[in-house]
Write a structure and sequence with these properties.
By secondary structure, the protein is mainly alpha-helical. It has five domains: about 1-75 and about 90-115, Up-down Bundle (Four Helix Bundle (Hemerythrin (Met), subunit A)); about 120-230, Alpha-catenin/vinculin-like (Four Helix Bundle (Hemerythrin (Met), subunit A)); about 245-360, Four Helix Bundle (Hemerythrin (Met), subunit A) (Up-down Bundle); about 365-480, Up-down Bundle (Four Helix Bundle (Hemerythrin (Met), subunit A)); about 515-670, Four Helix Bundle (Hemerythrin (Met), subunit A) (Up-down Bundle), CATH 1.20.120. It has helices at about 1-5, 15-45, 50-70, 90-135, 140-170, 170-200, 205-230, 245-260, 270-285, 295-325, 325-365, 370-380, 385-410, 415-445, 450-480, 515-540, 545-565, 575-600, 605-630, 635-670, 680-695, 695-700, 705-715. Helix 6 (about 170-200) packs antiparallel against helix 15 (about 450-480), helix 18 (about 575-600) packs parallel to helix 20 and helix 19 (about 605-630) runs antiparallel to helix 20 (about 635-670). Keywords: Cytoplasm.
């Protein structure tokens, strides 16, 4: 909105519509700033150490917002240039200064608020650590109950704070690390309870003490990692060692090889050879593994040898091309590049097959949890010899699963999945010995209910991690096959040629500056309509309603088309715009279908009007689709088509602004008991149920086990007597 004001072109003639549009933008900015500052001031009042800085930033922001509102108060002026009142037309620099001050002060408020959030998380972590120290030293059940109740509440608070922070993180790698640390804390909180109780019940038992110490140590590491992520720092200034995988190595190597097409001199042959050497060293993780099949091992070794030969051939042609750029040599270079990349793709496919087939076999083999069941039975029997035998089998299983995680990391395809593999490896590495110590404790004290409960908790953690591995394997396969990570179509860059074979023959065109200026007014109207639609959708209590979702989708697409009129956003060419217009029209048709379904439930005088508007929408969307698909040639004809697409999109958005409040009114009448709706059909019940289940705090809390933890803390009792 600010950019719209700054870029506003001064014209001798200004229509009432233009003046009203400018005033609405100015007022919208001021209102948004007012809401923002109110939150900032509330934060300042709760945090005295930053109150002064925050208050100053809030005052600056409010002042800048009011200045913008004053300078854009032009709707009532017939001749603003002759009036003594200063406006955007008489003082453009005033708007620029106010905008700069506003952006500066808003940024300052955000930075200060972020510092407060970080401080809250650190303070919460410190509380948890202090209580953990008390729990470690406790010597009686009664004291333990009191302190653990306090600890549980503190962990719930920490879970809420870190959960919000995880959602706010933009870096997917950090988000994955935070999720892994929080998962450790969730599981360890329950383990800490049973391990501590077991240790209190059997104070002289060495295996019980080892079991408890392992839980405390792991929790401290997880708490430390959360703080590292939140503060973006590492202890002693160490740099984080990024995990190196075969996939990332191959990706980087191929980028360098393909870069030779553009520039023959941007890297040395030694550099390229070293990169391949690192990749082939990592393939030894597969060829040296006892769990890799003979067939996979042979194929990987063959492809490694072939990769060296292909690189030698590439380097030979590359060196010749540097000295003499003949057509034949450049063709030979292209062939060498393609053969090298093809060989690397085959190597990538082979290691993926080796890792995922091993994982699938192991997970299938261990689904019955026979070793865990045997440990529980022999532990209760007090059979130390049998427990020792099964702990050896569990150790073997642990080594297999750890190796599986290491190999999967190489083929995971994305950094977040790499981190998930590392977390899984750590979990198996740590949980295995903890199960063994818990089983030994039970074998030494076979009649102890608390030792039995403790072993159950650790076995559940192991089973849970195995279940998580099945999901992780599916995700890794999805990434490899290109099924993961696609955004909703109206938020991603349209891909001409995918949906219409004729588009390939068309040359993409961008609007020049003059054309952008001509279409700017239409674009601004479209922008204001998207704001109106967004305001209307926000009024709906049920954000999962099909009508709302289609409306939000269309608003998002219309906004990207508005950005195109300014030469910004994801739509770079006219062909991108036309494709977006087609998708917009399709979404509008889907909305019309949802309106028809909704109208079947309406028993009100508004039903004919609703159906009439829905039919209008279908007609307008069809016209837009015809316009967007029409073939044109020449600059003038292309611009006319652009203008027509945006004009028809604007008309659809105008209709949408009328439809949304009408539907919302009908829903509210129903809630008020006016009986304008029949009983809700299954499609709507499902949507409402889904919406409520997904967005409630209870549902969000479950992702960290907060709900179960709260219940556990509340209902915690020790039924055993001394």
């Amino acid at each position: 909105q600010i950019t719209t004001l700054i870029n506003h072109k001064d014209k001798p003639k200004r229509s009432d519509k233009t003046l009203q549009a400018i005033q609405r933008v100015g007022q919208a900015v001021n209102l948004a700033v007012g809401r923002f500052v109110t939150v900032g001031e509330a934060i300042a009042n709760e945090n005295h150490e930053l109150k002064e800085e925050m208050s100053v930033a809030c005052i600056e922001a409010r002042r800048a917002g009011e200045t913008i509102a004053q300078l854009t108060n032009v709707a009532s002026l017939d001749h603003p240039e002759s009036d003594s009142h200063i406006t955007i037309f008489t003082d453009k620099t005033g708007v620029v200064k106010a905008a700069r001050l506003l952006l500066s002060s808003v940024t300052k408020v955000l930075v200060l608020a972020d510092r407060i959030v970080i401080k809250q998380i650190i303070t919460s972590r410190n509380k948890v650590l202090a209580t953990m120290e008390q729990l470690e030293k406790v010597s009686s059940f009664q004291e333990f109950v009191q302190i653990f109740s306090q600890f549980g509440n503190e962990m719930v608070e920490f879970a809420h704070l870190t959960g919000d922070r995880q959602n706010d993180l933009k870096d997917e790698k950090k988000k994955a690390r935070m999720a892994a640390s929080r998962a450790v804390l969730e599981k360890c909180t329950m383990m800490l309870l049973t391990a501590s109780k077991t240790c209190l019940r059997h104070p002289d038992c060495e295996s019980a003490r080892i079991n408890k110490d392992g839980v405390f140590h792991r929790m401290r590491l997880a708490l430390e990692q959360v703080i590292e992520i939140v503060t973006d720092s590492r202890p002693n200034g160490e740099n984080e060692m990024a995990p190196i995988s075969i996939y990332s190595g191959i990706r980087e190597f191929k980028n360098k090889v393909e870069g030779l097409r553009e520039n023959l001199y941007f890297l040395s042959k030694e550099n390229l050879s070293a990169m391949l050497e690192v990749i082939l060293e990592h393939t030894e993780d597969f060829t040296d593994s006892a769990y890799t099949s003979h067939e996979h091992r042979e194929h990987i070794l063959e492809l490694s040898k072939q990769a060296k030969m292909e690189l030698e051939q590439l380097v030979s042609v590359w060196m010749q091309a540097q000295n003499q750029k003949t057509k034949d040599l450049m063709e030979d270079l292209e062939v060498a590049i393609l053969k090298t990349c093809q060989c690397m793709n085959e190597l990538k496919r082979e290691v993926h097959s080796a890792a995922t087939s091993l994982a699938a076999d192991l997970l299938k083999y261990h689904t019955d949890h026979m070793v865990l069941k045997a440990l529980k039975i022999t532990g209760v029997e007090g059979n130390l010899e049998a427990v020792a035998e099964y702990t050896c089998k569990l150790s073997e299983q642990k080594e297999q699963l750890v190796e599986m995680c290491r190999l999967l990391r190489h083929v995971s395809g994305t950094e977040p999945l790499e981190i998930t593999c590392i977390h899984a490896e750590d979990t198996f590495q740590v949980t295995g010995p903890q199960i063994i110590s818990a089983a030994e404790t039970l074998a030494l004290h076979p009649s102890s209910k608390i030792a039995k409960e403790n072993l159950e908790v650790f076995c559940e953690a192991w089973e849970s991690q195995l279940s998580d591995m099945s999901m992780l394997l599916r995700e890794i396969n999805d990434v490899f096959e290109g099924r993961r990570g696609e955004k909703r179509v109206y938020l991603s860059l349209p891909r001409p040629g995918k949906h219409n074979a004729n588009l390939k023959a068309l040359k993409p065109v961008k609007l020049d500056t003059e054309e952008q200026a001509k279409i700017a007014k239409l674009g601004l109207e479209l922008h204001l309509l998207t704001s109106d639609v967004d305001s209307e959708t926000e009024k709906w209590e049920d954000q999962e309603n099909e009508i709302v979702q289609h409306g939000q989708g269309m608003s998002s697409m219309a906004y990207s088309m508005y950005l195109f009129t300014r030469g910004e956003g994801l739509l770079k060419t006219t062909q991108d715009l036309f494709h977006q217009a087609e998708i917009f029209a399709t979404e509008g048709t889907k909305l019309a279908s949802a309106l028809h379904a909704f109208s079947d439930q309406v028993q009100d005088d508004d039903k004919p009007l609703l159906l009439l508007e829905a039919e209008k929408l279908i007609s307008m969307c069809k016209q837009l689709q015809i316009t967007a698909k029409a073939s044109v040639q020449g600059k003038s004809a292309t611009f006319t088509k652009v203008d027509a697409c945006i004009l028809k999109t604007r008309n659809v958005m105008t209709l949408l602004c009328q439809l949304l409040p009408l539907c919302c009114k009908l829903l509210r009448k129903n809630k008020a008991g006016n009986g304008c709706l029949k009983p809700a059909p299954p499609w709507r019940e499902d949507r409402i149920r889904t919406g409520t289940n997904t967005h409630t705090p209870e549902r969000r809390a479950e992702t960290f086990g907060i709900k179960s933890l709260e219940n556990h803390v509340t209902n915690m009792t020790f039924l055993e007597s001394k």
